[in-house]
Amino acid sequence: MGNSSVFFGIAEIGYFVAMMLYIAYFVFKGEYLGKVATTVTIISFLAQTVAFISRWVESYNIGIGRPPLTNLYESLVFFVWCLMLGYLIVEFKYKKRSLGAFVTPLAALALGFVDLTGMSKSIEPLVPALQSNWLLAHVTMSFIAYAAFGLSFAAALMYLIVKTDKRSEPAYIFWSVSGSIFFIVVSAMLLDYVNYKVVGESAEGFIKNSLFRSTFRNSSPGIAIFSYLAAIGIVFLTWRYGSILKRTIAGFNVPVDFLDELNYKVIAVGFPIFTLGGLICGAVWADQAWGTYWSWDPKETWSLITWFVYAFYLHARYLRGWRGRKVAVVSVVGFITVIFTYLGVNILLSGLHSYGDLM
Questions:
Q1: pTM for the complete prediction?
Q2: CA 238 to CA 243: how far, in whole Å?
Q3: Residue 9: its pLDDT value, please?
Q4: Four-residue CA torsion sign, 349, 354, 357, 359
Q5: Which candidate, 225, 228, 248, 246, places its Cα nearest to that of 236?
Q6: Tens-digit pLDDT profile for residues 202-227
């Protein structure tokens, strides 16, 4: 893998550090912490850009010659690159660093998933089904859209936190449960990273099975039970003391109208790109590869579900006049379907897209 693996490693560590710095900035409101977080993010993004270009060059050097976008590892890395590019554009345009505390965990989660599942990082020749320019358009545009949806998720979650007051409100319960579950997943993966990656306590072949082995899938029943109880406790505490998080966000003077508008704008950009790249280009590629435009493959089905969720968002906003909490909930649900479309289908289901499995 050459130099690309070195730069990917720098980017991965950098994004994890940036995540912690943005969260520290979010909690302590230290302007210096915010500037350092932004600097680390920029350095990590540049390192990832160099890594992406290097991997492309390495592909040509070994006689394969393809863009690094065609397996699960490469597409996840490209998603992170698009996500962080979009975030940096938003930060520099609107001067809202607090959003970084909600965006960088997505990047850290994606890169942590790469390491902890042991998916192959080698440059392999393409199978015949993937040897098409339609594939490049399909994957590139899909992940640009996914990154836009990731930004909308962060903006929508912040909006829901700021705009809900009563713990009995459905929107309050929704964000406190979904947000805390996301935090629990990231924390569990960080523990896995420390136990199985940093200090090297596992054999190389065990990394594939190490996801959540430090917590929920631990061989010790006591640790596993404690992990579930701790997760329930975190959900409860988030629900009980969510007002603290609300006051913290309010302290940054982030206008709720800005969050609502940002949520809308990035979906308005991402949806037509996803329609063209994720569905139309994907259908043309499927016809070339398998002789049919649509086969109700699990990936295709869940892509269509994702499309319907975001189509409903735009319909509700344009024609029904929905604003605020209602569309913010739809945005969060939409990104949950994105995650399942991309990762859940690959892990839990099988189909024509099974070439994108972990190995």
A1: 0.82
A2: 9
A3: 84
A4: positive
A5: 228
A6: 434 444 456 677 888 888 889 999 99
What's the sign of the alpha-carbon dihedral 86, 255, 331, 357?
positive
Length of the chain: 359
43 Cβ neighbours under 8 A, 6+ residues apart: 14
Q: Judge contact between 310 and 274, C-beta under 8 A.
A: yes
Distance in angstroms (rounded) separating the CA atoms of residues 183 and 105: 8
Query: Do residues 358 and 347 touch, judged by C-beta distance below 8 A?
Result: yes
Digit-coded pLDDT (tens) for 296-318:
788 888 889 999 999 999 999 88
Report DSSP letters for 284-317, one per residue. HHHHHHHS-S----HHHHHHHHHHHHHHHHHHHH
Q: Mapping DSSP to helix (H, G, I), strand (E, B) and coil, where does residue 211 land? A: coil
Residue 88 neighbours by CB under 8 Å, 6+ apart: 41, 42, 45
Of 57-61, 275-279, 341-345, the one with minimum mean pLDDT is 341-345
**CA-CA distance, 273 to 263, in Å (whole number)?**
16
Gap between the terminal Cα atoms of the chain: 16
Question: DSSP 3-state assignment of 194?
Answer: helix
